[in-house]
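Consider the tokenized backbone below.
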């Protein structure tokens, strides 16, 4: 169980972003493509877990000073370093073997993802602003990889929205780190020297506003309307705005943005927003029941 925790399986949810291009393209029920993307999902999970182990190994000392991260397997001493590194090697080999089977383009994208995260763990995470940009680029690489596997074009708007969403969540996490630094008096990350609550509050407001406007522009884009066969995708913006507002409420009111993945698993409001967003897209793109919206005079 300790070594399973070392892999951080809960964080594998981030790799579901590989399915976004398939979902937006209207081909989410194509079983062959679903399986192909699943192979990419497994490859990303293997490499992501490998990176988590490497990062935990590099951060053992700093994690021991962190009120929450001190319970991680390596920081707590419950997991043996040699075994952990051996697992990381196996995951590395497995992930890239699967990537090689899928194709050279996906292999290259996964290689970029791995290299970027190793650079992040090696020191780039200590550079304010750049650290959250690297996290956001990782999500862009995920959707690009999903598009390559499913042979689906990833639009500029999709790239922008996913990048902004990841940037938004990373900034929220940094704000939580600042609060921990203030309450404990211990600087958890070197990058925290470049962040203050006022700066991060401004950053969150800026990113959330641009993200919502970008989503509206995506749904009203002539090319998207033509491809999806409906001009009512803007209706899904309701759930996007509600989800963003809820996340901001968690950050500002409850001061609980430490782990976006935990919020996704635990917060019912955000879960309902995501489900309703997916259902609305299902009706608009897959069932094409536009007559229902004509009745509502939208």
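A designed sequence for it:
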């Amino acid at each position: 169980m300790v070594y399973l925790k070392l892999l951080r399986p809960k964080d594998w949810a981030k790799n579901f972003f590989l399915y976004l291009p398939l979902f937006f393209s209207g081909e989410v029920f194509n079983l062959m493509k679903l399986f192909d993307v699943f192979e990419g999902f497994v490859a990303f999970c293997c490499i992501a877990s490998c990176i988590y182990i490497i990062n935990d190994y590099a951060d053992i000392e700093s994690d021991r000073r962190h009120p929450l991260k001190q319970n991680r397997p390596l920081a707590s001493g419950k997991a043996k370093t040699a075994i952990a590194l051996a697992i990381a090697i196996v995951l590395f080999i497995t992930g890239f073997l699967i990537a090689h089977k899928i194709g050279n383009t996906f292999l290259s994208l996964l290689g970029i993802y791995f290299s970027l995260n190793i650079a992040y763990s090696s020191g780039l995470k200590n550079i304010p602003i750049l650290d959250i940009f690297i996290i956001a680029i990782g999500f862009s690489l995920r959707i690009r990889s999903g598009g390559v596997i499913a042979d689906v074009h990833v639009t500029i708007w999709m790239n922008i929205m996913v990048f902004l969403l990841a940037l938004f969540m990373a900034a929220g996490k940094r704000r939580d780190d600042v609060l921990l630094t203030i309450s404990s008096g211990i600087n958890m990350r070197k990058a925290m020297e470049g962040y203050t609550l006022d700066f991060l509050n401004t950053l969150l407001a800026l990113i959330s506003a641009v993200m919502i406007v970008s989503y509206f522009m995506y749904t009203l884009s002539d090319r998207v309307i033509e491809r999806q066969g409906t001009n009512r995708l803007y209706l899904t913006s309701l759930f996007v705005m509600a989800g963003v507002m809820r996340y901001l409420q968690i950050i500002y009111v409850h001061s609980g943005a430490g782990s976006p993945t935990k919020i996704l698993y635990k917060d019912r409001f955000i879960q309902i927003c995501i489900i309703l967003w997916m259902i609305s897209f299902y009706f608009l793109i897959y069932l094409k029941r536009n007559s229902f919206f004509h009745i509502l005079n939208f």
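The chain has two domains: 1-153, 155-298.
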